[in-house]
């Protein structure tokens, strides 16, 4: 599978959806509706609590604002809205409330995942061993919600119509998962690895494609590694004409060039910015090479080149998406054993076997003398993200469940939170990056992203002391979405052993 292995190597540097009541789906998509309904009867066994009024008492709270943890707090939820938050000795609990005494546990806002997918790379590849993504209509939505992701942007869709159908099913209570902001098809060019990626055929094709999907509840578009500069410019202009945003996992176009075109968001960070590669040619994604990697490693985040890039991003209001988990996964010694145990329990047997095969095949993918290049690049990216935020940049986060199979929906987001803290962000700031920052980018900061009166009751209850042990993010107990408390363990169990296949 040489082409697939080439894809894996580049990406580390860088199914068919079952029809769901098609009349309902078509109507919901056509209306662009967010008419959320009560959960279907078949989903109710997955609910821990659905009382109209709920009091979560004696919790440690990270409210998503970036402020330090608040201790011994009580949160009142009334018909899907937060109505009170404050010290437990000062909040009056309504007599009709279901009281949940959660002393010793931690509450975060529902997480806003900003680089998520509804697909997973198929085991064995696609026809001719090209890369094929399989839509995860059953497993992905539940795994995201189980991990505390209550809002997710599908940052690149291989089957946008299927993603819209999943969204409609969630909105109508027929499926359970996060609120979805669906991104249109990948906008790519010659050389793309993923067979479902759309290779743009000039500016008129770009404009027609943007116009088509803009009418179908798409909220953004994503440019990919081989898009041509003129096509990227046209994508941005046409999307903006519809009031929509464009993000990019770029290579043929460098970050600074894309910023000057007006792009709204850049994915992954410094690791995929090709503009510093000495072999970079206009409009061409350079092949991975030791010279380019070495050049990147030698760059100082406080030096003139990186500082100029950061200032340009901030002055043009370009957000950066952190996906540390997907890069850590390319090192065979990482991620930790706990992550791998959860991954094995979640994936289908075929997908797990394929992951192990590729992991062994890659071995230690890059070494330069005594330097483990994968970890060196990861630490460089961490330093870049810290400096970007220090200067006022908007950092958002997600897990990007692609690569060679070790990053899984939801589980990867938990690891991303741990890595943000390992990168040096205070715990409260890491929570804000994964909640209120994403809400702000989506323009939904008045509804979600923080725990405060008036907001939608999207909450993540962790069975542990997250303040002093960030690994408590791996112990979600109840995930409240619009006030309905879903049992995290039951959600995970309901799709155990099928992820990667459906």
UniProtKB/TrEMBL annotation:
InterPro entries, per the entry: Amidohydro-rel, Metal-dep_hydrolase_composite, Metal_Hydrolase, Metallo-dep_Hydrolase
Q: Its domain of life?
A: Bacteria
* Gene3D superfamilies documented for this protein: Amidohydrolase, Urease, subunit C, domain 1
What is any Pfam family matched here? Amidohydro_1
| Residues covered by the Amidohydrolase-related domain | 106-482
The Swiss-Prot or TrEMBL record annotates one GO molecular function as: hydrolase activity, acting on carbon-nitrogen (but not peptide) bonds
Q: Which UniProt keywords apply?
A: Hydrolase
- Quote the SUPFAM superfamilies the UniProt record gives: Composite domain of metallo-dependent hydrolases, Metallo-dependent hydrolases
Per its record, how is this protein called by name?
A: Imidazolonepropionase-like amidohydrolase
List the source organism.
Granulicella aggregans
């Amino acid at each position: 599978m040489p082409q697939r292995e080439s894809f894996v190597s580049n990406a580390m540097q860088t199914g068919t959806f079952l029809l769901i009541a098609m009349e309902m789906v078509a109507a919901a998509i056509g209306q662009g509706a967010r008419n959320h309904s009560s959960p279907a009867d078949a989903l109710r066994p997955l609910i821990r609590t659905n009382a109209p009024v709920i009091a979560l008492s004696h919790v440690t709270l990270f409210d998503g604002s970036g402020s330090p943890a608040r201790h011994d707090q009580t949160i009142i939820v009334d018909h899907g809205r937060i109505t009170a938050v404050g010290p437990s000795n000062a909040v009056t609990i309504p007599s009709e409330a279901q009281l949940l005494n959660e002393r010793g546990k931690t509450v975060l806002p529902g997480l806003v995942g900003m680089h998520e997918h509804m697909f997973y790379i198929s085991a064995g590849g696609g026809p001719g061993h090209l890369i094929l993504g399989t839509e995860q209509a059953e497993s992905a939505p539940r795994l995201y919600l189980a991990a505390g992701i209550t809002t997710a942007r599908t940052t690149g869709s291989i089957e946008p119509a299927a993603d819209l159908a999943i969204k409609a099913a969630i909105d109508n209570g027929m499926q359970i998962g996060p609120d979805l902001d669906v991104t249109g098809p990948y906008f790519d060019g010659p050389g793309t690895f993923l067979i479902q990626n759309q290779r743009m055929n000039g500016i008129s094709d770009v404009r027609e494609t943007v116009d088509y999907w803009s009418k179908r509840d798409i909220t953004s578009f994503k440019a990919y590694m081989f898009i041509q500069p003129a096509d990227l410019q046209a994508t941005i202009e046409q999307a903006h004409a519809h009031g929509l945003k464009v993000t990019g996992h770029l290579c043929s176009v460098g970050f600074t060039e894309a910023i000057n075109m007006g792009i709204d968001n850049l994915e992954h960070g410094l690791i995929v910015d090709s503009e510093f590669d000495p072999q970079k040619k206009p409009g061409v994604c350079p092949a991975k090479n030791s010279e380019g990697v070495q050049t990147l490693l030698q760059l100082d985040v406080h030096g003139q080149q990186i500082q100029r890039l950061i200032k340009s991003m901030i002055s043009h209001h370009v957000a950066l998406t952190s996906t540390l988990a997907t890069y850590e996964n390319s090192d065979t010694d990482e991620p930790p054993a706990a992550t791998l145990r959860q991954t094995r329990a979640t994936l289908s047997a075929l997908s797990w076997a394929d992951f192990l095969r590729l992991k062994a095949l890659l071995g230690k993918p890059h070494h330069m003398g005594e330097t483990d290049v994968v970890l060196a690049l990861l630490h460089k990216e961490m330093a870049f993200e810290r400096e970007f935020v220090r200067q006022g940049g908007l950092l958002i986060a997600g897990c990007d469940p692609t690569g060679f199979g070790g990053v899984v929906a939801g589980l990867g987001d938990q690891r991303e939170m741990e890595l943000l803290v390992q990168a040096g962000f205070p715990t409260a700031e890491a929570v804000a990056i994964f909640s209120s920052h994403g809400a702000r980018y989506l323009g939904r900061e008045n509804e979600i992203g923080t725990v405060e009166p008036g907001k939608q009751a999207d909450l993540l209850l962790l069975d542990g002391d997250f303040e002093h042990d960030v690994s408590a993010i791996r112990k979600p107990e109840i995930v409240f979405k619009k006030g309905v408390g879903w049992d995290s363990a039951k959600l995970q169990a309901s799709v155990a052993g099928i992820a990667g296949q459906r």
